Amino acid sequence: MECMAYSLPKKLYKYQPYSVQTLDNLKNRVLWFSKPDQFNDPFDSKIVPSTIEPMSEKDWHAFFKDVQQAAAQAKKALTYHGPDDSFKELVKEGVEKSFQNNVSDFRQRGVACFSAKMDDILMWSHYADGHRGFCLEFDTTYEPFLNARPVKYAETFPTLNAEEVAEVFIRRNPEPQMKFLFTKSGCWEYEQEWRVLHREGGTAYRFEAAALTGIYLGCEMTDVHEEIIVRLLAGSPTHLYEMKPAGTKFEVEPVQIK
Predict the structure, then answer these.
(1) Closest CA to 233 of 252, 214, 208
(2) Which parts of the chain sit beneath pLDDT 70?
(3) From the CB of residue 45, how many other CB atoms can be counted at a distance below 10 Å?
């Protein structure tokens, strides 16, 4: 099965608007896991029938051998004598059926989204109410952030390779199809997104106070809102920063508030 090699960042960030709900979540150290159908991108986590990547005859023969061994272990007779067209069609139909059986489960999963950066002016505009909100900084050595996986950006929906087809068809493992929850259009690549999954969507997860290592206040946040957040953080180990315009550049940079 395809394994995406990645190095988990030491910190992950979550942009937030300033609202009653986000303040309540901050006060209670709560992280919200949303269902995929609540995302702002209708193509994000869109469930489409699994497509099998083109396989060579060598791949098909190796796959057929695996099916033979699985049938023998299950003490079942394999009626096919080789990877002919009818066998290939059977496999494609089997993968499709497995995918359809798992669609409901995928759509019910909870997803929490983060970024690997806290100084992107577009994300401050889109997700933090035009720089009037704030951004949370999490230590990824804590649960659930240590389970984060990176989003892959592509121009087409994911496909399954030969090894992944074997996982789905022979071993009935739906994990390869989970890549639909970790693949987005390439136009979103600037977000450098990471995701954590939860078995159930619409779930509030309470994290440890020490996991929240920093809060970055937007450069357009009002003084009153800043003071409210400062009061909420009283006695906590969280560091506080204010984002400032970076001179003549179209950038923002953090300045720590003592």
Answers:
(1) 214
(2) 1-5, 38, 40-50, 77
(3) 20
